[in-house]
Design goal:
It is a single chain. By secondary structure, this protein is mainly alpha-helical. Helices cover about 65% and strands about 5% of the residues. It contains 8 helices and 2 strands. It has a two-stranded antiparallel ribbon. A hairpin with a 2-residue loop joins strand 1 (about 1-5) and strand 2 (about 10-15). Helix 3 crosses helix 4 and helix 7 (about 155-160) crosses helix 8. The longest helix has 20 residues, at about 35-55.
Length: about 190
Amino acid sequence: MEHVLELGRVLTVTPARLTADATELTATIRAVAAGDQDAFERLYRDYARMVHAILLGRVPRRDVDDLVQDVFVAAYTRIHDLREPGAFGGWIATIARNRATDHLRHTPDQDALPDDLPGGQPIEAETLAVLDVVRKLPEAYRDTLLMRLVEGMSGAEIAERSGLTPASVRVNLHRGMKLLREHLGAP
């Protein structure tokens, strides 16, 4: 039995629950491979926040939503290439990272619009500055921090979706927050 610390409370993750989740994921992957659109919708619902966080840490914010869609289209068309359904989280994370790299390689530099243009939702300069600092952190810290802080995923959910152990997620979050505080000059 494994205990997971999540915002001040301890959750117990039993081997039976992990096995049930893996069995459910395997069934969902097989259904998607057979053309089941509802199964693909479940995968999207379960993994979109993780993919969004990974992309947000690598590409301009304006491109993230389109790239999330690209990643899921690629996953859907290549689902037959996935040898181990239980590895879906790591597999789609790799697709997201590769898609971000390709996007940056093939996208010409663009000038940003001035912040004082009317329309749209204003984003605080502080938020963008923090995101810029997070993007400079090591990949493991960056991804888990964005999944937690931006996407609101719990530690257990990050572990389940990404394929990391709950202990690795805790360490990555702790070390990532420590580095983030250091870079921001916070106590």
